[in-house]
Amino acid sequence: MKMMRSHGKAPQRGGLSRALREQKARLYIIRRCVVMLLCWHD
C-alpha cells in the first residue's frame, strides 16, 4: 500500500510543476503582449 501511495504521488507532483510552468509561461506571454500594446499606444 505504501509503495502504491508514493508511486501515485510522484506523477501528480510532476503534473503540478508542469502546470505551474505552463501557467508561468502563459503569464509571461500575456505580460509581453500588454507591454507591446502599451508601447504601440504611445
TrEMBL record:
<dbReference type="Pfam" id="PF08137">
    <property type="entry name" value="DVL"/>
</dbReference>
<dbReference type="GO" id="GO:0008285">
    <property type="term" value="P:negative regulation of cell population proliferation"/>
</dbReference>
<keyword id="KW-0472">Membrane</keyword>
<keyword id="KW-1133">Transmembrane helix</keyword>
<dbReference type="GO" id="GO:0005886">
    <property type="term" value="C:plasma membrane"/>
</dbReference>
<keyword id="KW-1003">Cell membrane</keyword>
<keyword id="KW-0217">Developmental protein</keyword>
<dbReference type="InterPro" id="IPR052153">
    <property type="entry name" value="DVL/RTFL_small_peptides"/>
</dbReference>
<keyword id="KW-0812">Transmembrane</keyword>
<dbReference type="GO" id="GO:0048367">
    <property type="term" value="P:shoot system development"/>
</dbReference>
<comment type="similarity">
    <text>Belongs to the DVL/RTFL small polypeptides family.</text>
</comment>
<dbReference type="InterPro" id="IPR012552">
    <property type="entry name" value="DVL"/>
</dbReference>
<protein>
    <submittedName>
        <fullName>(wild Malaysian banana) hypothetical protein</fullName>
    </submittedName>
</protein>
